[in-house]
Amino acid sequence: MKKILLSVLLTLAWLNLPGRTMADEAPAAKGKIAVVVSTLNNPWFVVLGDTARARAQELGYAATVFDSQNDTAKESANFENIISSGYQAIIFNPTDANGSIASVQKARAAGIPVFCIDREINSTNAATAQMLSDSYSGCVKLGEYFVDQVGETGKYVELLGLVGDNNTWNRSKGFHSVVDTYPGLKMVAQQSADFDRAKGLEVLEAILQKNPDINAVFCGNDAMAMGAYQALVAAGKDKQVKVFGFDGADDVVKLIAEGRIAATGMQFPKKMARQAAEFADAYLHGKRDFPQKIPVAVELVTPDNVGKYGNYGRKP
Length: 316
What we know:
- By secondary structure, the chain is of the alpha/beta class.
- Helix content is 42%, strand content 18%.
- It is built from 10 helices and 12 strands.
- The strands form 3 sheets. Strands 2-1-3-4-5-11 form a 6-stranded parallel sheet, with helices on both faces. A 4-stranded parallel sheet has the order 7-6-8-9, with helices on both faces. Strands 10-12 form a two-stranded antiparallel ribbon.
- Helix 7 (197-210) packs across helix 8 (222-234).
- Residues 1-27 have low confidence and may be disordered.
C-alpha cells in the first residue's frame, strides 16, 4: 500500500509541474484532416461535414469542419488557413465547379491531397478523387415518377440550385430528359433559389402570384422543396400541388411518409463522407491510385418505399 500511495503522489506531483496536463499522456493524433463544406446553413451539409469529421477522428486524426457559406472567397480563405496550419488532407464539398478549382490547385501545390464529395470541380487532375452522386440518373427516375404522379398534362415550376454548381444542371437535365418528351407538361417558371430553404419559400411565393394554377414543383434539392412546401401551405395549395425534391433529407423523408411531399432522391451523404475520410487515410498511408470520379447511385424515395429510409440513408 505504501508503494501504491507513493506512486500516486509522485504522479500527482509530476502533473502539477508547470506546463504538464493529462493531455500529455493522451495518444497523439496521426495528423490533421480538414473538412471544408459549402454551407452549414442546410442540415444535409451539416450531416455531410459531421460524418466526415467523425470518421476521420475514428481513424485517429484531429479533424475540423470549415464552413464556406456558399462563398468562393470564404472558401479560398479557408484553404489558405488550412494550408498554413499543417493539415495533411482535405475533404472538400465545393461551392462552385469552376470557381473552386484554384483553391484545390493551391492545396495540390502544397502537397495536400483533396477529396471532393457531393459536388465536383471542372478539373480532371486537381483533386485526388471526386466522389459524386449520380444526379443525372437520379433525376431521370424522379422525372419518370413525376409523370406517373402528375400525368401527361399540367403546369409545373422548377426551382434550380446554385447556377455555378454542376449538380444543378445535371439534375435539371436528367429531369427534363424525361418530362420534355410530354408536350402537355408545361414549365411556367424556372428560377434559381440557390439550394436554400428560405429562398425556395420566397421564390415560389412570387411565382404563385403569377401562376396560381400550377400542378407541381420540381426542386433541385430538399431544402428548396421544404421552402416550396411552406409557400404552398401558406397559399392553401399544398393539397393540390405536388412537390418533388432531391437529397434524402430527413425532414422531407418524414413528409413523404405523411403524404405531404411526393418524392425525393436519396443521395447517401454519410456513405460519401465516410468513404472520403477512408480515402484520405489510405493516401496518408501511401496509396496513390484513386479513380478521378466515383459515382454513387441515387435511389428514388416515394410513399411506397419510404419505410426503408431514414437518418440520411437506408435503414439497417
